[in-house]
Amino acid sequence: MRTYDGTPMREVLLDRLPPTAHTEFLVYVMGPYTTFRPDYYLRDDLTIDDADLDMGAFGDAETELQDELRDIVEWLRTDVGVNAFLAVDPDIPTEGFPDETDAERMNVISQSKAYAEASNAVVFILPKAGVRDGVDIEIGAVLSGFDLGLGEGTPQKSPQRFHVFREHGVSSATLDAVPHEYEVALSEYGTRSELHEQLERFLAGVLRSERRGDLSSVDGSTD
Description:
Number of strands: 7
Low-confidence stretches: none
C-alpha cells in the first residue's frame, strides 16, 4: 500500500474524509475540473449562439465542472452512502500547490495512483463540457500503473473496480480502447439521472462482489 508521510494512504483517507453510511467503501471520483469555454476559440464576429454548441448535461456556463463533480460526490455520499471523494478532498498538496506548506507534497500522477490503490472503486466521469486533455492522460497512467493491460501479467487491482462513464458525444479513440486494452468497463450516459443510475449500479456490483468474496480486501493488500 502506498503511503503518505509514512502512513498507508487508505488510513490517511479514512482519517481525513467525513464518515458516511459505508465509510470503509472508498470511491475515488476522477474527471475534468475545468469547463470548456467555447468563446475562447470563436472569431470576434461569431457568438456562442451562432455556433449552436451542445454542451451536454453539465454545460452550465455559470458552474465549473469541479462543482458539478462535487455535487455527484455529495450525492454518492448521502444517497448511496459510499465514502466518495475528489482528489482535492483529502487536502494533500501536490507539487504545483501554490502556497508554502510543511506538508509532504505529491505529484498528481503518484497521488492518483495512491488514491486508486486505496479505494474500493474508481470512477472516471467524462462530460462533453469538460477540458479532458490531462484527464485522458491520467486515466492511462492510473490503469497501466496497476498492470491492467492485456498480457502485462497479474493485475495489481481487479479491473472490476474501475469504470469509465462518458457522456454521449464524447469522442476519443483513447477512451474507445480502454475496454480492450485494460478490460475496464465503459458506459455512456445522456442525462444526469442516467449517470446516477449507472454509478449506483456499478458500485452496488462491486459491493456485492466484495461480500461474496469475489474481490479480495483492499485493506493493505491488492486484489
